[in-house]
């Protein structure tokens, strides 16, 4: 037996050298079986390539059929399986993630008293999975529980510098030894771990005769623990030849961190083990032309000179030696020939992908013999690019194969199973139900047939809307008397859409019944399960009963019919994985007591390890993959994307139970044992090998390399270029070309941004101004027209001149949408002035915001209004005042009325256990406190409530509407007055009060601009109805805050004892608004001495006994100006509404909380502008402007 190691740098074609050696054996009629072993990921490509080269070596032409039975290409796993099969032995079943999770969970439970450290850590999310990984690592490295206990003393001695860490590690090792012992005992001879298949082969093949075998290994830079067991076995059993990356001259001189450190370490380990087994070892230098003693043609006497060879070097042959030095922080020799190396930095990831696609198309055009299959796109991490790849590649018409693991965890079938098995008390959460239903796999059936997609998903969408506005509890889901009504019928069967609304409601309740049936069946079935085996059997019976598998098959067939074969295959892969997971759970722990949480966690663990198989589905497509995955070296062009400092080198994290610090203490002790054992490397050691990963990427392509990275990351922060890039580019003096997201002009577009017609048109659309470029534009347009995009060009380019302006409605449409005379509330007019177009959407088209069950300020405002109406209404009936309200009366009226309110559908959520009743209790407390504030404020005067929630302008009210204008221009304003007080016993003055959930004050500027019309309009309406109300005149109108304002204790100015006793008066409650500067009226609010400040009004007297400038008072003359302007604004708004004028011209604050932004699409780039207020400044400036207008009108 002999071992031959061929050390070859990456630029040398070691495969060709091995094929020549194989050819030499065949020529010499060596009858031994030849196995050529490569990494599994490139097995298919390698098999094709090796046989193709062998055919050429044996004189076959490229188009001749060639077959060879003596030479076979395998991966190590397939080779082991092949030999095991030849021995007539069968490998035990491999235990997957789900089975391991259940097994380890049970071990932790049974041995909890022996595991002081792990018992605490078990509750931590992900701990069991991490422990499973750690146990698998120990078994793979053949580290026994006894080994862990044996090294405890050594660990404690070596860790004296950090006793706390050492103590923690010792506890971990003891716990790990206990769990590992139970784990090994449970697996015994019945199961294997995935990484134990190769050691099992070695164990079972002790008597295997490989004397008639020759094995070649190529493409490995290192080996896993399992692979090492096979390599050691082969060293003893057969002639073994390994082609390993590296430089023979550095075999004994390399240092840790060098590019070749890992493969050369591998070579030294093989040499050491071969000598230990007394096997002959030969190390060959792959840089020699014929490292093996082969029969070959005599050397060409006209062999090119050295300088000519240098000129003919490929890009790979130039870059790899350079990076072997640069990656090891050494200086390479000077280069006489420049490689085809390019670099660019793009604005962002999308621009980077677009530029890569553009350059690939250019490569194909420049090189007719280049195919997509010759091009490789690599990234160290494809995460930031994955969601953009399909759109970009489709736009540039590039077929591609994503050679990367795609996890199954987010598949709809996984979502369905995990949600069904979730906590029973969360089964009827809206999010849970909608997730289940939106998978489409659990749906009602009719006459034995599943409901079709159109009806089903439409009903689910309606249910989504219903749940957003109602959030029914589990009790209401189960109440058969409670119907889910999305559309009220209002007793109008002749109304357009009535039948459709009723159909939606009917379907909604059928779905409601199905959901209750399905979720209850799941909860009852799992509750009755005694063992995990019972639970698994029930789950399968459940899925069969509700025709889930039939729905899955229907979905697969639909995907096949639509031509999406990849997704169709993925559906069945997930289903098969699900079946396998259940099988493993039953086999490993079927007799264990059923635990819903453990059962779910086992399934989740199994799904988390599931990955879809990736198979190229076209003969010619480019490959997109991640660096670090073994790649075929058949490519000619490499695009390495995403080379930022944070991504390259990759930031490795260790997630196993033994941390990196633990490993630094444990590994030396393991290595010093009689039979050395080795754990996986620390994260730092793995990161030190990133230079080799980059080397492997450069090795994949022969002719051209393009490096790129995005300037901005996904969060909009600036990236730095990878140090790997900078070292390579600086050495070869290659500039980094900036690539913008769009062309500067047409000349730039035609020079640098041409792609497919669709991609080119997309770039053209981004250009803001084409003035002065008519000739260039016509050329581009003609080219796009020739490509069949003539009409599309016109449509797309017209968007550059688009102005986001609303058209004036036709008179007929305006009249149909808005009745004559126009009947409006004051809030509608204010809404018009805030945002005219939103008024049109809301009150013209009657578009409503999606209902929400969240209790917002508007909903709480309704509740408070109702409570105050009841409380004040009782006082009016008894002819009492707010001063007469006692805390006991306040409590009774609030609680009684709130109990009535929560029975109404709108507020039914407040009657639900948990959060609903907690919020109701909070509202109860706040309402009582606010009523106390109102009662306290009434102590300063003789006011008495006269009306509460009084309507004007409505048939059910006794007060007339406010009518302005005549004929088609007439506008009728109606509304509801929250409270009207008789300010004095004689009824000379009335005071208007409007409750606000925000601390609102009167703004002269807003009033003059139409944004605050309520107080002035209600004032006028009460004045016109004064006789009916039994008052002489209105003296003031105020906003009353109905909210709890929290103030710091340091700012409290009251009596602390009263505060602690709950009797302190409010420090912040104050009426804000307008009061006539009438001494008699002001005295009725609160009698103040000179320099005294009112407690509950914004009113202060000067030393002369007159209101100060900061007081919220107004003279009769100034009030007349405001009232006149108010009427003008009402009429002006009515005229514009009736004329159909609704420009997109909001005030700036109107869009902050607008529900209609997605419809308006306000954008300054498209010509939209905010309103510029006509009136600015404070009271004095606004009154001055109004007076100037008045003077101008009067000449």
UniProtKB/TrEMBL annotation:
It comes from the Bacteria. Keywords: ATP-binding, DNA damage, DNA repair, DNA-binding, Exonuclease, Helicase, Hydrolase, Nuclease, Nucleotide-binding. Residues 16-283 form the ATP-dependent helicase/deoxyribonuclease subunit B N-terminal domain. Gene3D superfamilies: 3.90.320.10, P-loop containing nucleotide triphosphate hydrolases (3.40.50.300). Pfam families: ADDB_N (PF21445), PDDEXK_1 (PF12705). PANTHER family: RECBCD ENZYME SUBUNIT RECC. This is ATP-dependent helicase/deoxyribonuclease subunit B. The lineage of its organism: Bacteria, Bacillati, Bacillota, Bacilli, Lactobacillales. The gene is rexB.
